[in-house]
């Protein structure tokens, strides 16, 4: 009798163990899948930010081909193509995304950005027009401002630049673009103000420093502004100022500034030397 009871207990235990084994394996599989998913996300983020652009393009081309129904991988491929200096290919990928139900307003803004990089201003405007006015982001208004600039719609451009600068904590880039817009309109005082403001947010932006000198030189302000600069930057800014003076017919001032640039540069300043020789200096 005891043998029969023991056998029944053993059989019940084996049944319980058999019942537990599949669920335990399923839990293990789910855990491994979660780990793999996290690893994939981390690798994707690394590829998008710090990896070599060409390697990132190769990686996302491969994984997006393996998972053709994943729009996020295609978005990452497009971003990588932009980083690699291939906006035409990025636009092709983004056009494919915007043709699907999964398309978002951000996708259309990114497509407009890629189109601007390929000089397709008409296409960029068409994409931005598809974005509802309720979608208010820094990138959207930055691009709207650039498109308005391309059409010489200065009033609209100024409005969009102002909105964009208020939608980011790092407005140096858009302020520099806005200043360059003013420079092309020959509003040199307005450009000077915007380049100066850009440098308050990013004191190391050499493009804004150079543009600031251009704006001042156009007003015949031939002294360097009081801004942070290295010795090499000082020489290069003097050179920019010299060329501006020469272009405006102030040859004596230009020669003096070229000489200052040559003497200031910590190394041989070939471009300035050639310019001075061309003027007979």
Automatic annotation (TrEMBL):
Q: What are the TM regions of this chain, as residue ranges?
A: none
Cross-referenced SUPFAM superfamilies, in alphabetical order?
TPR-like
Q: Does the keyword Transferase apply?
A: no
Q: Which UniProt keywords apply?
A: Signal
Signal peptide (UniProt feature, chain positions): 1-18
Query: Which InterPro entries is this protein grouped with?
Result: TPR-like_helical_dom_sf
- The protein here is known as Tetratricopeptide repeat protein
Please report the organism this UniProt entry assigns to the protein.
Paragemmobacter straminiformis
């Amino acid at each position: 009798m005891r043998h029969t009871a023991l056998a029944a207990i053993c059989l019940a235990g084996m049944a319980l163990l058999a019942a537990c084994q599949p669920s335990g394996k399923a839990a293990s599989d789910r855990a491994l899948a979660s780990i793999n998913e996290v690893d994939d996300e981390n690798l994707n983020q690394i590829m998008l930010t710090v990896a070599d652009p060409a390697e990132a393009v190769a990686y996302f081309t491969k994984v997006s081909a393996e998972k053709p129904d994943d729009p996020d991988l295609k978005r990452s491929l497009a971003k990588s193509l932009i980083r690699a200096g291939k906006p035409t290919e990025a636009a092709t990928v983004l056009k494919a995304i915007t043709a699907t139900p999964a398309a978002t307003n951000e996708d259309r803004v990114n497509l407009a950005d890629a189109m601007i990089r390929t000089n397709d201003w008409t296409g960029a405007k068409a994409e931005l027009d598809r974005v509802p006015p309720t979608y208010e982001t820094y990138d959207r208004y930055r691009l709207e401002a650039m498109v308005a600039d391309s059409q010489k719609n200065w009033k609209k451009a100024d409005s969009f630049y102002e909105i964009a600068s208020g939608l980011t904590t790092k407005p140096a880039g858009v302020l520099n673009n806005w200043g360059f817009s003013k420079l092309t309109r020959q509003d040199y005082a307005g450009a000077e103000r915007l380049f100066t403001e850009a440098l308050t947010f990013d004191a190391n932006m050499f493009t804004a420093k150079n543009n600031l000198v251009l704006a001042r030189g156009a007003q015949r302000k031939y002294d360097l502004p009081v801004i942070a600069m290295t010795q090499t930057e000082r020489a290069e800014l003097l050179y920019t100022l010299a060329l501006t003076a020469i272009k405006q017919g102030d040859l004596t001032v230009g020669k003096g500034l070229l000489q200052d640039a040559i003497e200031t540069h910590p190394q041989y300043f070939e471009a300035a030397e050639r310019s001075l020789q061309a003027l007979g200096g």
